[in-house]
Amino acid sequence: MSKYKEIAKSIEEKIMNGLYDDTGKLPTEDVLIKEYQSSRNTIRNAINHLMRLGLVVSIQGSGVFLRKGDSEGAINLENFHGLTTQFKNKSVTTKVISFELKKANAKLVSKLKCDPETLIYYIKRLRYVDGDPYVVEYTYYNSEVIPGITHEVATTSIFAYIRKVLKLEIGYVDMIISADILSAEDAVLLGLEDGMPSLKTENVEMLRNGKIFACSVDVHHYRRTKFLKLSNYI
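The structure assignment produced for this chain is given below.
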């Protein structure tokens, strides 16, 4: 990874951890140059990279500000690091409904780009935000890429397990969003009625090296879920 991308990743993690929330802006170029022992051009390339990701905006003469948009209560599609991180100021809890380890079928082999003999974790979870049912997740993890998932891990943040325990870098999520009708089972879990609408996302999740580690279908409570998309013209 190039130096400027390493710096951009470090700053991105600090943004996600709320390090700059008090000021709402990044330190000056001179401070970042000293902090990262890098040239001005490298720091500027890192900031430009963060701008392309939609994380910051540069205002001439004023500084580089965090670009949050009106994101209160919304899932940020530009910078999604898992539900627990997304709603770090809320209580996110999890009920594990199914937890299995089984061989990949033909559909999963195609989705996960894995060998037919690969063992796959199938995990179905109901996630709550501030005590309210929020989303039903149906997720399939490649056990050769993400080993060691336990029932206990599944009750917390699996993304945090991947980053902090396995020391792997989550890179990309390809997401298709659609409207759908709730099944009877999902309706009960979300506290809605059978046949009511839902917001559904179909996801393929990759590490920074491009390796697919999971695919999933998430069925969201249509009254509680909203998505934020930041558009860039740079």
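Interim note for the steering committee: The chain has two domains: 3-66, 75-228. The domain at 75-228 is CATH 3.40.1410.10 (Chorismate lyase).
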